[in-house]
Amino acid sequence: MPIVLVRVDERLIHGQVLEGWVPSTRAEELFIANDALADDLIQQEILSSAVPFSVKVVIDSVDRIASLLMRENERDVRRMILVDNPLDALRLKKLGVNFDRLNLGNLTANSAVASLSRSVILGNDSLRALLNIVEEGVRVHIQSVPFEKSVDFCEVCDCLPEER
Fold this sequence. Notes:
Organism: Desulfomonile tiedjei (strain ATCC 49306 / DSM 6799 / DCB-1)
Subcellular location: Cytoplasm
Largest sheet: 7 strands, mixed
Shape: globular
CATH superfamily: Phosphotransferase system, sorbose subfamily IIB component
Number of strands: 9
Strand order of the largest sheet: 3-2-4-1-5-8-9
Order of helices and strands: EHEHHEHEHEEEHEEH
Strand content: 15-25%
CATH architecture: 3-Layer(aba) Sandwich
CATH class: Alpha Beta
GO molecular function: kinase activity; protein-N(PI)-phosphohistidine-sugar phosphotransferase activity
Keywords: Cytoplasm, Kinase, Phosphotransferase system, Sugar transport, Transferase, Transport
Protein name: Phosphotransferase system, mannose/fructose/N-acetylgalactosamine-specific component IIB
């Protein structure tokens, strides 16, 4: 079954995801790809406890989540993938995870180089990663909640690839 949403949000699991994105995408599994959380069982338990029992939660490293998604891509399950930064989203794409849209939720940066919305402020590394993701053919959009109008990343960054 398709990946129904790949979202970059530094808060990972929170109200917008649980009350907005999970119901609107009808996600049955929630994958959190995060190297720091992979070995932090206490944080995993805290995050998992907020998710409804009807949604399976898998928290692991970026590499292991990519491997798992590649092995189980034939299962008839609706999956949402969360990462907390654009670099991890780019890693997933480079590791072979197939997605053609990327949702930007909440991102902040200590050394901001681009403020794209009230909730998306990028540092240089994040901006470069997103530009690389666009070059991979992924449509990147800014949208905090499903009922909010989606804003195309390339329109606000003037980064449309020439082949489009």
